[in-house]
Write a structure and sequence with these properties.
This protein has 222 residues and is an alpha/beta fold. The chain is built from 9 helices and 11 strands. Helices cover 36% and strands 27% of the residues.
Length: 222
């Protein structure tokens, strides 16, 4: 059975989320107070409604509490985002995911009891910073408690060696998530490679661990 999800705020970020969720098979309700934005997305989602999300009755009339989750993507009006989030809590929505712009907004949402918070600008900034300071890093996902998941070109010093010989876990306290190998058609995921897998030129590795250990692995094996 498809998940029933609502996305409130059809800016560039919210619209992208709504479309992606639909592509993945979810039944999406798109909400915005701008009729033009709703017109632009109505053919890409299951339902699209123009309404003011700070109007409790209007939200309740959309059976918002029946949704498996509601994503609040209002970016331009912080007051409207907070009020919408508060109303969703009052109505008893089972799962609320909210967008924050900056540490102050995140702190307020956390004090409201919102545990799932999106910060796309911060994630983009982290990725750009990582790519500029470490050109080998292709993707970086920052996690709580100084953990990260990164996708990186296999460093020169480890090429021709097996994963067992490199000893990511034993020597660097890192975990390999997967390996991507280049072919004529592009890169393909190799599943979970075993200790006998040998790294070759152009391999991409996705690893998980503390930031300091990731930095150490990159520095030692440049």
């Amino acid at each position: 059975m498809a998940q029933k999800l609502a996305v409130i705020g059809m800016g560039q970020f919210g619209g992208a989320i709504a479309r992606r969720l639909t592509e993945k098979g979810s039944e999406v309700l798109a909400i915005d107070n701008d009729e033009e934005k709703i017109e632009a997305i109505k053919d890409d989602v299951a339902y699209a409604v123009t309404l003011d999300s700070t109007d409790k009755r209007a939200l309740d009339a959309q059976n918002i509490t029946d949704m498996d989750a509601v994503v609040v993507c209002i970016g331009a009006n912080f007051q409207a985002m907070l009020l919408t989030t508060f109303i969703l809590q009052e109505l008893g929505v089972k799962r609320i995911i909210a967008r924050a712009q900056g540490s102050t907004q995140r702190c307020i949402l956390e004090k409201m009891g919102i545990n799932e918070i999106l910060q796309p600008e911060e994630e983009v900034a982290n990725n750009v910073a990582e790519q500029l300071t470490n050109p080998g890093i292709l993707m970086c996902m920052t996690l709580p408690d100084d953990f990260e998941i990164i996708e990186i070109k296999a460093p020169k010093a480890v090429l021709g060696r097996t994963l067992g010989d490199i000893g990511l876990r034993e020597k660097y306290q890192l975990n390999l998530i997967t390996l991507l190998r280049k072919s004529e058609e592009g890169y393909h995921i190799q599943g979970i490679p075993d200790a006998h897998t040998q790294l070759v030129a152009d391999d991409l590795i996705v690893i998980f661990g503390k930031r300091k250990y990731i930095d150490r692995f990159i520095e030692i094996n440049r």
